[in-house]
Amino acid sequence: PTIEATGGRIVVGAEVVEILTAGNRVTGVRMADGRDIFCSLVISDVGIPNTAGRLLPEGTPGRRPLLEAAKAAGPSVGHCCLHIGLEKTAEELKLPMANLWVYPGPDHDANLRHFEADPSAPLPLVFVSFPSAKDPDFERRHPGRATIEVTTFAPYERFSRCQDQPAGRRDEAYVEMKKDLSSRLLQTLYYHVPQVKGEVAFHDLSTPLTTRWFCNYEHGEVYGLNHGPARFRQRALKPKTEIKGLWLTGQDACTAGIAGALLGGVLSASAILGRNLLKTIS
């Protein structure tokens, strides 16, 4: 409503295939259906690898620093998420509203190294969330139902050999890997939330290939660019680019995660408008 009330439009299923430029200045965007929309300002929230690697034409001045920064930072880790449906309400199942963070031990770096080297090693992190328990309107919209999400890290390399196989028709090894991970995640859930055992009506596991398909992240990364020390040495990772009229926003313009993406939006808007919006929203 706010966007439309100020003259903006929200469109879905409208794929941009190119950012149009003239020299080092943005002139608009080209849609998948061939239409060109001309403008002097483009704000990209699709991540720097997609912005510079897929949308900006080769040879665009200012493109190379973005590509070099993305390469130096590298992609963040992939993930698998078990989406669970239950045929009772969150209240009936006494589901918590808080998230659960489950670790096999306090040495997080070692936990991750062991899992990267051996898929059968303990899962380095299991994150359990209860979306329906947090949503006060869920029961009205979906009476008698509840949902749970159980997430863990998953290196993209373990799934990459199947990336060219059609979704829903991937080979048996991929299916078995999903079954094994689903079973391990369910076991973790039942240990920490035992009241849901026997109540799961549906579950399906997303993998890094799922993220790759729906989010256009080449390596199925969950958080865009990796947020290690190298990331924060890259001067190009900020809202303003060397290309006039092209601005970056979201987590690649700030830092990873929901809070990073939100703050990336605030920083981008502040830079474009020329005023500190952190003061406005604080």
Supply the key terms.
five-stranded antiparallel beta sheet; alpha+beta; FAD/NAD(P)-binding domain; 282 residues; three-stranded antiparallel beta sheet
Strand content: 15-25%
What is the tally of helical segments?
Answer: 11
What class do helices, strands and sheet pairing give?
alpha+beta
Largest sheet: 5 strands, antiparallel
Tell me, what's the shape? globular
Low-pLDDT stretches are none
The number of distinct structural domains comes to 2
User: What is the straight-line distance between the termini?
Assistant: 22 Å
Q: What is the total tally of β strands? A: 10
Q: What does the radius of gyration come to?
A: 21 Å
Write out the strand line-up for the largest beta sheet, numbering strands in chain order: 6-7-8-5-9
Explain this structure:
- The chain is of the alpha+beta class and 282 residues long.
- 34% of the residues lie in helices and 19% in strands.
- Helix 2 crosses helix 3.
- The longest helix has 21 residues.
- The two termini are 22 Å apart.
- The model has no long low-confidence stretch (mean pLDDT 95).
